[in-house]
Amino acid sequence: MPADDSSVFQIDSLRRFETPEGIEIELRLAGPVPRAGAFAIDLLIRIAIYMALTPLAGLAGVGIGLMLLALFLLEWFYPVFFELRSGATPGKRALGLTVVHADGTPVGPSASLLRNLLRTLDFLPVFYAVGLVVMLVDRDFRRLGDLAAGTLVVYRETRATVPNLARHRPIAPPIEMTPAMQQAVLAFAERSAELSAARRAELAELSGLAETVPASGGDAAGILLGIANWIARGKPNAAMPEPERQGSAPSSAAQQASGGPRA
Amino acid sequence: MRQQRFEQVYAPVWRRLEGLLDDLEARRRPAPSVPVQRLPRLLRQVSGHYATARARGYSPGLIARLHDLVRRGYRQLHKPRPNWPRAFLRMAVSGFPRALRRRRGLFAIACALFFGPMLAMGIGCAADPTLIYSLLDGAQVAEYEAMYDPSNTRLGRAPSRAADDDVMMFGFYVMNNVGIALRTFAWGLAAGVGSVFILAMNGLFTGGVAGHLTQLGYGAPFWSFVSGHSALELTAIAIAGTAGLLLSQAILAPGRRSRSAALRANAAESVPLVMGAVLLLVLAAVVEAFWSANAAIPPEIKYAVGIAGWILVAAYLGLAGRGIDPDDDGPDTDSLDKGPAEAKAAARGSLWT
Hints:
Chain A is mainly alpha-helical. Chain A folds into 2 domains: 137 residues, no CATH class; 80 residues, no CATH class. In chain A, helix 2 packs across helix 4, helix 8 crosses helix 10 and helix 9 packs across helix 10. By secondary structure, chain B is mostly helical. In chain B, 73% of the residues lie in helices and 0% in strands. At the A-B interface, helix 2, helix 4, helix 5, helix 7 and helix 8 of A face helix 1, helix 2, helix 3, helix 7 and helix 10 of B.
């Protein structure tokens, strides 16, 4: 429920940032464990690239020179290359992570170079000991390179699936509903297609709304869907097309029979 | 307005933004037919719809859908799309020397920390043949002596490596020297201790070898080998040290800012210095591998090239970028009196500053 959670102080890994458009963006920070996993994957990829280049050694001087150059580039600039290409190294991408500036925008050349050049310090004395300590102390899981570059490692946002509000004959809410209650009823209607009939009925009965509607006929879920449709679509009148009974709504014959009182 | 009506009225706008975002996300460089110029306005509109939807308590699904669009749009609007050749040229022509001149005080300290021990150790080792052993063990000294033995045909390389290709040595010089420079920079974050240590040790080491070999009478091969790339290489190490000291300044003397704010500001300022040092070192590696090692070139010519190198490097660092772009710190301060195309390019250009 996004309606009133701003009042709660959160100790979690969610950071909010307000964009210039006045919109709050949520960043979900990634902790040391997924980042270590991403590093391990990247390490394997780097080793694989290096192994693939070993036949170059057969070319004597020129080949060894190219191999040394490749080793240098892989050591220092492998993450920079991928971060500027797509925001994350292949290892981070595999774990659903991405690198962003503190304001949630994709990482740029300057910040990417900094955080990766300072990696050499985070790595000290072995396997990111310094970086791990700094990450655990910092509230945003930043290692030294992130602190200097002003970057965060966050979970990549997943695309929201667009749910359909299940259609039902609109039913006037029997009581005055607070915004939070309205949101809950709407969320129920949008999720009802994913729920089993028994679960739907259980949730609807818990809401306690069904009892307040006189002729509900015991179909609590149907009542809730009806109220949701009333909130979203308004009363069934000439301006609004009558919702189709056979549509995506999970309502059954029993529910259709129940109808609902006109307010 | 009920949610249904709201959706009916504005869904076309959302679909337009969605289509544009799909196009932008599909390819790194959008096709010319994609109307990118519509993005800011569409994003502002949909941001307004999102705020309205939240304020009116529309369904969570609709709010999530709009939030998704806004989030994606924000990402695309602020995604860096660097013009690499232009950014590189700008950095090399003006950004790097200007960044160094802005920090000439730290550069002077870094030079003192690097060239001071070098000079002292050089004079010491030239006067006292045993002093070099306080720094290097016998095997290492012997190796250096063999590398610059006047009877050696390939200068600056151990006799066992004489047949090795110049390209191989180029790769080695890049990996080794650029690695040292980048470490000198990064270690500055450790309150400067790392940078100072690496600068001083490299100074002692370089000076010691030079003094020792000169005292042995191997001066001609040694000095003719190092003279060509010395200007580029030694200056670059001092510049990497400057960048490291810049990081340490944020820790030791942040001034009127918090340490973390000072660190972010100084770190951003150090990027053109580090990249400039890398550029100089790659050039130095080219000279060192393909010019310095060639024993067929008479020493007199090599000395002349070496002196010319120092003059060129000094002129580049002292003069390049003077007078152009009086305010290139901000990407758009000078964009007002330029045409739209130029202004757009200027806004994209200053990646490294």
